[in-house]
Amino acid sequence: MGPFRVPNAYRATYFVHPEAPRRLRARGESIPRVVIDAEYTLEQQGERTRVSERTTVSALFGLKGFVARTAREAHRKQLANLSEYFDALPRTAAGVLPR
User: Fold this and answer.
1) How many domains does the chain have?
2) 16 lies in which domain range?
3) 92 in a structural domain
4) What are 55-68's pLDDT values in tens digits?
5) How many Å apart are CA 49 and CA 57, to the nearest integer?
6) For 86-92, which contacts have Cβ atoms below 8 Å and span 24 or more sequence positions?
7) pLDDT digits (tens, 9 = 90+) for 12-31
8) Which is deepest, 19, 26, 64, 88, by most CB within 10 Å?
């Protein structure tokens, strides 16, 4: 990386909407003026849960590409982990997740 190190604090805020379709909204903020807003929608589809994500990134001009690539990769891994998590949960005889 070079001779410079910049400590980076990341603050995340989450909002949960439990009504169908269930949604989780998240906002991450760090310096310098980086903001990532993500919304996950969870919809029951038979025995599976469909997880959709919409993400927007705001950053200084020189950082926007780096932040977008980093966020895309991190969120891709996070969606894969969510899928594994929901697929492993026990389900009722009808294939529905218990509440």
Assistant:
1) 1
2) 10-87
3) no
4) 999 999 888 898 88
5) 26
6) 86/42, 86/48, 86/49, 86/51, 87/48, 87/49, 91/47
7) 888 888 777 788 898 989 88
8) 26
CA distance 81 to 49: 13
Q: Tokens 């310096």 — which residue?
A: 31
Q: What pLDDT, on a 0 to 100 scale, did the predictor assign at position 16?
A: 85
In a domain, 96, yes or no: no
How many Cβ atoms sit within 10 Å of the Cβ of residue 98?
Answer: 7
Contact 59, 67 (CB under 8 A): yes
In this structure, is residue 99 part of a structural domain? no
**8 A C-beta contact, residue 48 and residue 87:** yes
Instruction: Quickly count helices (H) and strands (E) in the chain.
Output: 1, 4
Coil, strand or helix: which one is 5?
A: coil
